[in-house]
Design goal:
Layout (H helix, E strand, L loop, with lengths): L4 E3 L4 E2 L9 H4 L4 H16 L11 E6 L5 E6 L9 H6 E2 L24 E9 L5 E8 H7 L10 H8 E7 L8 E9 L9 H11 L11 H11 L7 E6 L5 E2 L7 E4 L3 E4 L2 E6 L5 E7 L13 E6 L2 E2 L4 H10 L11 E6 L17 H29 L2 H20 L5 H22 L4 H26 L7 H23 L2 H15 L5
Parallel strand pairs: 2-5, 3-10, 16-18
Antiparallel strand pairs: 1-8, 3-4, 4-9, 6-7, 6-9, 7-8, 10-11, 12-13, 14-15, 15-18, 16-17
Helix pairs in contact: 4-5, 8-9, 10-11, 10-12, 11-12
Length: about 525
């Protein structure tokens, strides 16, 4: 039997400072899980067809029974004993390319030291009868990198003192080829390491997992990915807790989702867009009801490279903020994904956005056009929803109650009466619009709503004309002007091409300042 051999660690640094490899590097400590899934995915993708046929790749995640550890294992080709220690102890150095791999910076393997006492890598390459075990002492690393000791040792020496490596014989039950990372002895871990439901929800969002079996658009998306040339890479991922059976993980998109104030709604069609240069394509689910999706595991539009999520939904939310300001309330009205070609954009080290280079700036502008179009659709659906008989009746009731409250208070607030009058005017316009194409029965009901609103407005005007504090007419005129400018700008943004919109913004800003935006 081959004896276990201790291997001297000779760490290599590719330009990264060891002290930066803390929770600050990854934004949120739970992103360590994403890093290990990403590395496992790359391992599977690099396996030769004679080792893994298409669809045979598997990432297994085990939450330890005592909730004090987590193991992530893949059935990729493993790392040969001849260079495994060097590969696993190199920091900031990687043979991967951002043009073909999900991860490429060579820093993700240390992510778990932020909250683990020990991080252990075990690997066996196909065809070898030895396995490599590399152990990082997380407690000692954090101590040596603490502010009090951070400058007393060079980074290479920290790794030499904190890492142990051995190569020895395989054991019964070891797979023929694999790479495993084992996190043990948690110290203030993220909830995703100790709560099964949160772990599965997180992996369903960030991992390159398949769509759920009831997802209605998978066949059409297969056609689109082939047409555009940017594949939706998938791998099987399972999670189990202790001795329980493993549970397959899927993206949680389905045919129906809960929407605020609308309940469960059908998502029965989708809209697509793609870059003519082949850098990205997207799909967005469509619904007829206004409102935000309530499930945070699916709401919003997510950006992915190699089907691994970059950040959460913040990237596309910022696109709305930069390029579709009139529609900033709408990002959660949609579900969808943007698939970016590997190599087209470069994720930053934290993987929460992209490097701020010319390519990303151009793509962001393109996505801004998409955001504006989506915003216009949402705005139209919102207006349609606001002009239903039920909605208008409810709003009229609200105005009656608001006026009654003002009356009970002795009409002490003139500004409140002005607000009520202005809101009633808006509702009267909506009633008139809704009445144009209404059937006779609905038209009669809308007429009754209009009369109800007219009564409220008459009473509010009478109250304003009575005795009371002197009105600040200048403030009222300024507020009215600002409201009108915002409405004009909203209409321009929905109807003008981007180049015309930029000129319109310049003219309005010079004349009125930023009151319209």
């Amino acid at each position: 039997m081959t004896a276990i051999r201790t291997i001297q660690v000779q760490p290599y640094f590719g330009g990264f400072i060891l002290e930066t490899l803390t929770v600050g590097m990854y934004g949120e400590s739970r992103n360590a899980i994403r890093e290990y899934i990403q590395n496992a995915f790359d391992s599977i993708r690099s396996a030769t067809p004679d080792l893994l046929a298409e669809g045979e790749g598997l990432i297994e995640i085990e939450m330890h029974a005592d909730r004090d550890g987590l193991t992530i294992r893949d059935n990729g080709g493993g790392i040969s004993a001849g260079n495994s220690v060097g590969v696993l102890t190199a920091v900031g150095a990687s043979g991967k390319s951002h043009r073909s791999d999900a991860g490429f910076r060579g820093i993700g393997r240390l992510a778990g030291i932020v909250f683990s006492s020990k991080v252990t890598f075990t690997t066996r390459a196909a065809g070898e009868d030895e396995k490599t075990v590399v152990v990082f002492d997380g407690d000692l690393m954090r101590e040596l990198m603490s502010p009090g000791k951070g400058s007393s040792l060079p980074a290479e020496q920290v790794l030499i003192e904190c890492v142990a490596a051995t190569i020895g014989p395989i054991e019964a039950g070891d797979p023929p080829h694999f790479l495993e990372v084992r996190l043990e002895g948690f110290r203030d871990p993220p909830d995703e390491c100790t709560e099964f439901n949160k772990l599965s929800a997180f992996v369903s969002q960030v991992g390159p997992v398949p769509y759920a079996p009831d997802f209605p658009f998978r066949a059409q998306l297969r056609q689109l990915e082939a047409q555009v040339g940017i594949a939706i890479d998938e791998v099987r991922v399972t999670i189990r807790h202790g001795a329980r059976n493993p549970v397959p993980i899927y993206k949680l998109y389905g045919p129906r989702h809960e929407v605020a104030q609308a309940g469960m709604v059908n998502v029965d069609r989708f809209w697509t867009q793609f870059d003519e240069e082949g850098r990205w394509w997207l799909w967005v689910g469509q619904k007829d009801q206004p409102g935000s999706y309530l499930d945070p595991n699916v709401s919003g539009i997510r950006v992915r490279i190699k089907n691994i999520q970059i950040d959460g939904t913040e990237i596309f939310r910022e696109v709305f903020q930069k390029h579709a300001k009139s529609f900033v309330r709408f990002p959660d009205w949609f579900v969808g994904e943007v698939f970016v070609a590997a190599g087209a954009l470069v994720p930053n080290a934290r993987r929460d956005t992209f490097e701020e280079d010319a390519a990303w700036k151009q793509v962001r502008r393109q996505l801004g056009v998409v955001a504006s179009e989506l915003g216009r659709d949402a705005y139209a659906i919102s207006n349609a929803g606001q002009m239903t008989l039920e909605k208008l009746s409810d709003k009229a009731e609200e105005m009656e109650k608001a006026f009654g409250s003002a009356k009970s208070a002795g009409f002490r607030s003139q500004n409140r009466l002005i607000e009520i009058s202005a809101e009633v005017t808006k509702l009267q316009k909506r009633v008139a619009t809704a009445s144009r194409d209404a059937d006779p029965t609905t038209s009669a009901s809308l007429q009754a709503v209009g009369s109800q609103l007219a009564d409220v407005k008459v009473e509010a005007i009478r109250a304003l004309g009575g005795a009371g504090p002197k009105l600040d007419t200048e403030a009222i005129e300024l507020a009215a002007r600002e409201e009108l400018l915002r409405e004009v700008w909203s209409n321009l943004e929905r109807g003008l091409a981007p180049q015309c919109l930029a000129q319109a913004r310049k003219v309005l800003t010079e004349e009125y300042g930023d009151d319209f935006s």
